[in-house]
Amino acid sequence: MSLSSTNLRVQNGRYSLKEKTAIISDKNDLSMNDMLVTKELHLLSVHHRRGQNKVIFEAIIPLILCSFCPFFVRSVVYICTHANGSLLDFFKQISTQMTLKQVLEHFFYLQWHWPSAIIFFLFISYSILMTLLLPGEKYHGPVTDYGHVPEYKDNGFSYYLISLGLFVILTAGLKVFGLTPTYIYDNFEQFLSTLNTFAFIFCLFLMLKGKYFPSTREYRSSPNWIIDFYRGVELYPRIFGVDIKLITNCRFGMLAWALLSAIFCMKAFELYGYADSSLVTCILTVVYLTKFFWWESGYMKTMDIIVDRAGFYLCWGCLVWVPALYTLPSYFLVSHRQQLGPTLTFLVLLLGFLSIYINYDADRQKLHVRRTNGNCFIWGSQPQLIRAKYRLLNGNESESLLLANGYWGISRHFHYIPELVLAFLWSCPNGFHYVLPYLYVIILFILLMHRAHRDDQKCKLKYGQYWLDYCEKVKFRVWPGIY
């Protein structure tokens, strides 16, 4: 098979999925020079297996999401503070009390608030410097289709603990001058508007960098700038040695979530004195994120990092969506005080800590099996493994261990269950009079169910019959007996 004929048929999209897989896996038909076309093969096979209509899924829907998500984020915060948490009041206000210009200014226009911008740039600069300067052992992410092995420094947990300590010191120092971090709560709408403006510009920069100055061969550029902006171009973009996804996802997004939850709890204490509901939500959030940073090296091997590229979907989400919507249970409690009482406080905390432990232990179990190459015990017995072999696009063979007992014998994504339970637990201190505080739970449920579906598709394509054998052993994706 000649390179020219292969290119022609790829460009015309005439290969079936079976033919494409055969081309990639058969080294007799595909020499190393022919690997030049595998980027197109891989891209087309992804679209083929999803059955996507390109006009809808690569133009209309991304354009709608890039326009609607910023409006959604800003409107949710507006509803909390200006519409008493009521969707009906919100729609009444924008339909009868606001002009079109006011609606655009409040929810759509890119805006810039310099005090918020200064706070953000100080924060992001701190994140980058600490990531570079803090010591930590080197570790690696999974090998990519082109044989690239991303390298990181394992200093996330120390970064998190030092950051929390510095936040306490900063809070005490500001108090001496009559200042407080709750300034961010008082100006949260302007803060989010500024983040949104920066994130849009940054995602455009990432797209252009990926197209013209990619960091590795793991990039996917197309003539369609809309989908490239939305999905991203590069898988592992780096600038001066700084991993972009590590900064946006972990060192900014997750730390901002913890600090904002603490700030909103402080604001509730300023307004009401002791506020047990805000305290419970804050404690569960901070402990959960402590677990996240302890396990950060494991997160860097998940779908967010090894599949999703650095674009609007991922980077805007971590820069804007996470600070706005993941903190919503804490934010809502500031303007809608609830009292739990000692019994409910203890019960919610106990169930929350248990959920965090189970979520952590499930991830630890899988990583332990892979780290020991299966030479360990799972709940007192030998691990039940499927050694799934697969071929990289560069022709090399690799292997993954698929664990089929322990937590991972209950369902293929069992760890999503305690995560959803935990999200409900830190939202329930808001009571049950409003839907808005549970928006995070609803969004997380949709996200995780969709992610489980995507992961099944990815693994089926990657592992083939091995994955089908695994699904025979572990029949349910997430919910045992249901899904």
Automatic annotation (TrEMBL):
The keyword Endoplasmic reticulum applies. It comes from the Eukaryota. Its EC number is 1.3.1.21. Pathway: Steroid biosynthesis; cholesterol biosynthesis. It holds the Pfam family ERG4_ERG24. One of its GO terms (molecular function) is 7-dehydrocholesterol reductase activity. It is an enzyme of class 1 (oxidoreductase). Keywords: Cholesterol biosynthesis, Cholesterol metabolism, Endoplasmic reticulum, Lipid biosynthesis, Lipid metabolism, Membrane, NADP, Oxidoreductase, Steroid biosynthesis, Steroid metabolism, Sterol biosynthesis, Sterol metabolism, Transmembrane, Transmembrane helix. InterPro entries: ERG24_DHCR-like (IPR001171), Sterol_reductase_CS (IPR018083). Its main location: endoplasmic reticulum. GO terms for biological process: brassinosteroid biosynthetic process; cholesterol biosynthetic process. It catalyses: 7-dehydrodesmosterol + NADPH + H(+) = desmosterol + NADP(+); cholesterol + NADP(+) = 7-dehydrocholesterol + NADPH + H(+). The chain crosses the membrane at residues 55-79, 114-136, 157-178, 190-208, 271-290, 310-328, 340-360, 431-450. It is found in: Endoplasmic reticulum membrane. GO terms for cellular component: endoplasmic reticulum membrane. The keyword Lipid biosynthesis applies. It is a multi-pass membrane protein. Belongs to the ERG4/ERG24 family. PANTHER family: 7-DEHYDROCHOLESTEROL REDUCTASE (PTHR21257:SF38), DELTA(14)-STEROL REDUCTASE (PTHR21257). This is 7-dehydrocholesterol reductase. It comes from Didymodactylos carnosus.
